Amino acid sequence: MYRRFFGFRGKPFSIAPDPRFLYLSDRHREALAHLLFGLGEGGGFVQLTGEVGTGKTTLCRALLEQLPENVDVVLVFNPRVDAFELVKGICDELGLDYPEGTTSLKALVDTLNAHLIDAHARGRRTVLLIDEAQNLDRDVLEQIRLLTNLETSEEKLLQILLIGQPELRELLARDDLRQLAQRITARYHLDPLSLEETRAYIQHRLRVCQGRIDIFTPQAIELVYRLSGGIPRLINILCDRALLGAYVEETRQVGPEIVRRAAAEVLPEATRETLEDEVSSTRSRRAGLALGAAGLLVLLLALVFLSRNEIPLLSASAPDRLSGEQTPVPAPAAPPSVRQQAPAAAGFDEMAAGAPVTAGSEVAEEDATTAGTKGAAAVGTIPATVPDEVSETVADRAIPDTAPADLAARVATLDYGDTLAAWQQMFRRWDATFVLDSDQTPCEQARAQGLRCLSQRGNWRRLRAHDRPAMLDLIRDDGSHARALVSRWPQGELPEIVLGARRLRMPAEALDRWWYGDFVILWRPRTTHTLLRPGDRGPDILWVRRQLSRLFGAEVLHAEDPQRFDPALVEAVRRFQAARGLKPDGIIGAQTLIHLNNLDPEYTGPRLDEPEA
Hints:
The chain is built from 24 helices and eleven strands. Helix content is 39%, strand content 11%. With 613 residues, it is of the alpha/beta class.
């Protein structure tokens, strides 16, 4: 319908697997290299996992095209079969003759084995590719493992590629399937596209159809990325409907409003609520903030206007103490009756005194939680506490159960004093002290009191999984930043959100317009070190074993050296990580430690999932 309007030669965002539109991102190329390496090893299993629509099938098509001519491929697309049906299907795909009407699994395996030996003698290899492998029964997986026992004295006769959704990783992490897991020679988890990859993906498909690559504005592409989570199939669905919407409106430019309407039409509400899970928002948060900051600090320092009914505006240097970065000073103060907006923060990463990390990156988290930057020299004064009227309001005012009608106006008028109030409330949840007039960042103050910061990006589900009060970074329509605290979120109830001088109980999704997935939590380590690697030794390892034993039984404690991070413990950690939705890399970083803390009966810190006393 819109092809002629835009001058396309073809439909750029069809979800059909058209090889003309094949786009291999850096992640896809890396995955392809892993798979080719694994299949080139001459036996065993190769595992590829990824969320629905991330391009696993596309990647497999590219893989099959690169296999040598001497490779026979058996494709299994319906894994909901028993062991007998699976082996029978393999024999049928290879065109093997077996006794008609046989019900003997052994007879089928013998037939297959004879064929594989003959193929090996002729210089041919056989690859079994099983799609949707997360649906395989345990008995079928065991039979597949036994098929890899078909071998010569030098190599395996059958190579097996398991393709599935993330549940496949959890399935293979089961203790009763450890023999199969140990035979996996290469594994790769296909992540969604990044923002830059999403932009390149959209432009690539437009280019193939000989369309203009600037049809989607940068803001529209960013919104497509946020709503799709970087999943190619959803990108196609959104972009296709957005182009239709632009055609209906007779505009040749797709902006964010058209994308929003398209999402409302084609994405289920539950999908829209959860798709920000691995999103890495790269909206420019520092553009123009540092320009001329030093000169402005000298020239434009303004007096603080005090008003009984308003939160005092802080001196121009106050953001520097919080962020450790120079920040432009606002324009000269308006009359006291006008609520002031503090300068936009330089970015949310300064709150964690280190760069935010992608969920699952345990090694990087150590840097994010331990790095710190000293604030700029103090200039002017800052209140020692949040004004009484603010504290009393936050503590005592009745909490409404729905989002206020003026929510957008409230977010727009949040100022720097509101940010401080939110941090003070967060520290109070930890029975810690937040000093407003301090040269230290909030995370430096937290560290001095035995706490750590963890900066994350994700969605509401990931935020809740940490089970800690969380500070949100809100990005307003003008690009400036504001803060909101998710203080409590009991199961089955609406979250309690501290927004400025008010506590609100409202659907978290009401903040989706401004929240792009960045948040910071505080946590208290129960171990001396916040990064534990295989091979490490010490009391921290024994503590880890004790926590895991609450899930996996006392056998986790039974080791020749209980204080050593041995291979058996690595596997137990991986199982735990997979069960918690973490990257199962066997490395214990901040995220894994937080989830282990949640198992510890001696944990006394605040939880997100706890009602107000």
